[in-house]
Amino acid sequence: MPIEPRVWLLAGSLVICPVAVAAEDAPPLSAIDWLSQSVTTPASAVVPGETASGRTEPPVADGGALPEPVATTALDGPSPDAAGLISTAVSGLPRKLWGAGLTHEIAERLTWEKVESLPALRQLFLTILLAEVDAPVDAGGKGDLLRVRIDTLLGLGALEQAAALIEVAGEMTPELFRRSFDVALLTGQEDRACEAMQSAPDLAPTLQARIFCLARSGDWDTAALTLHSADALDQLSDDQATLLARFLDPDLFEGEAPPAPPSPVTPLDWKMFEAIGEPLATDGLPLAFSYADISPQTGWKAQIEAAERLTRAGTIPPNVILGLYTEREAAASGGVWDRVDAFQAFDAAMASRDPARIAATLPEVWARMQEVELEVPFAVLYGKALMTMELPSEAGRIAFRVSLLSPQYEIAAQRHKPVDSTEAFLIAVAKGDLKTATPPDNLGRAILQAFVSPAPSTEAKALIDGNRTGEAILVAIDNIQRGVQGDLRGVTEGLSLLRGVRLESVARRTALELMILERRG
Fold first, then answer.
1. CA distance 319 to 336
2. Contact 380, 10 (CB under 8 A)
3. Interatomic CA distance for residues 121 and 478, integer angstroms
C-alpha cells in the first residue's frame, strides 16, 4: 500500500528573544520505545530527552548556576515545527495556536491516550497534530515538537499521516528517517526504505538494518559475512544475532523452537519474525502494527479486526472497513463473522432501497457496530441516506440517531419531527439553540449549561488568558473525557471552552455523541 502525502479524516538572520524556555528539570519530550534501531543518530542530532537509541532519559544537571536561557529563532527559514498538512482555513484553528506556549509543556499534553476519547474529540486531536500552525516561541528551528507530533501519530496508528508529515517537514534527519523507515516496514514498503537508506550516505545504518537491507536487495553473502563479523566482535546481542541468522537462513533452524519475541517488539523485529515464518500477532502490539494486517497478504479475519481497531481510532477512513465487511461471505459464525453477516444484510437492504428490508436489518447491524464502537464510522457511511427514509418504530429511532452522528447532523435535525423529549433535546443540540430546550437527564443538563451559560475550567481559562489556545483545547478534551467517566462538570467545562474558541461544530458533534453513544462511566 503506497504511502503518499494525503490526509485521512481527513528567513536567515538570527534573532535572540528573551523568552523563557523549559526548565532544566522539565520532563523529557514524549518518545515511543518501539522504534527500530535502523540508523545511528549522531550525538549532535539527539533531541532533548532522547538518547541516540531513541529511549528517553532524565536530564542530567551539573549543579552549576546558569544564566536564564533564551529562545533563538531563524526568521528567514521555515521552522520544521510549523510543518503541517491541514491549513488553518480547513482546520478552523488559529495560525498562532500555540501562542506563548513552550515546547515541553505542549508536548506533555500531546499524548495518544486521547484515542480513548469520543470520535469528534479524536478527530479534533488528529487535526491539531496535523495542522499547519506557527511553531512554539522557543522552537529554535530544532523540530522537537514536530517529532513529538509524529510519535503521537505513530502511537495512534496514523501511519499514512505520519509519513506525509515527515515528507513535508523538509530535511530528513536521522531521527525522522528512523520513523519513516518503520512506517515503510509496517506498510509493506521495506524495499523502498532500504533504497532510501542506501541513497543517503549521511545516514549510518545500524548492523541490524544493514544486514536486513543487504538481504532484501539479494546480497545474501555480504549480509551473512556482516553478521558473522559482527557476532565475532560481540557487536550484537545473542537474541539479535539468533534472529538475524534465522532471517538469513531459516532452513538451518528447521525443527527448532522459534526465538522468544523481544520486548518491546520493533517493526524491524516484526518484519523478520514474519520472514522466518513465525509472524507475531498484532493485537497485542502497539496500534501502529495493526496497519500491517490490513494488507491483502493477511487473512481476511485479521484484516477486518485490524481495520476495526484503526477505524475506531479514527486513523483510516470508514470505506476501508466497508470494503472488508462486504468482500466475501462470512466463513463461520460468532464474533467478527456476526458483524460481517449483519453488515452485509443491511448493505444489501440499503442497495435495494426497500424500507421494509432496511427496517428489518438496521437494529441488528446497529447493535453489532455498538459492540466495536464503530457507530460514527457507520453513520458517516449511511447517515445521509437514512436521513431521507421513513422507517417505523425502533428502526426509525435508530435511523435518526445515526443521521445525527453523521456530518449532515444539522440537516437531519431540521428535517426530523421529534417523537419525545429526548429527540427534541437532540435536535436543539444539533442546531446549537438550547435556550428553550429541556434536558432529559443530568448529562443533558451539563450540556445545556455549556450552551446557555458557558463555564470553562479555571485551568483552560488561564491558558486562554495566557495566549496558549492550543493547550487550552487539549485541556478541554481532557475535561470532557473526565465527564464521560462520571464527572459531569468536565462536560460543561470542556464544551464551554470549545465553543469559546469558535469550535462550535466540534462542540455540537461532541455533545451529540455524549447523548447517543454508550460511553458513560
1. 17
2. no
3. 9
pLDDT-derived band at 29, boundaries 50, 70, 90? low
Residue after which a domain boundary falls, among 145, 165, 198: 198
Asked if residue 326 is part of any domain, the answer here is no
Residues 6+ apart with CB under 8 A from 57: 28, 49, 50, 51
Of 177, 198, 219, the one marking the end of a domain is 198
User: Does residue 315 sit within a domain?
Assistant: no
- Three-state secondary structure call for residue 47: coil
Per-residue pLDDT, 520: 56
Domain count, the chain: 2
Q: Which domain holds residue 72?
A: 14-198
- Cα–Cα–Cα angle for 149, 160, 150, nearest 5°? 15
Strand duo 39-40 + 71-74: pairing: unpaired
Question: Would residue 233 count as lying in a domain?
Answer: no
pLDDT of residue 170: 84
pLDDT range class, residue 46, cuts 50, 70, 90 = very low
Please provide the DSSP assignment of 154-210 as one string.
HHTT-HHHHHHHHHHT-S--HHHHHHHHHHHHHTT-HHHHHHHHHT-TTSEE-HHHH
Quick check: helix, strand or coil at residue 416? Answer: coil
Cell of 401: 440517531
| pLDDT score recorded for residue 483 | 86
What b/e readout covers 462-496, taking b as 16+ CB neighbours within 10 angstroms? ebbeeebbbbbbbbbbbbbbbbbeeebebbbbbbb
Q: What digits encode the pLDDT tens for the residues 450-495?
A: 999 999 999 999 999 999 999 999 999 999 998 888 889 999 999 9
**Three-state DSSP class for 356?**
helix
Residue 444 lies in a domain: yes
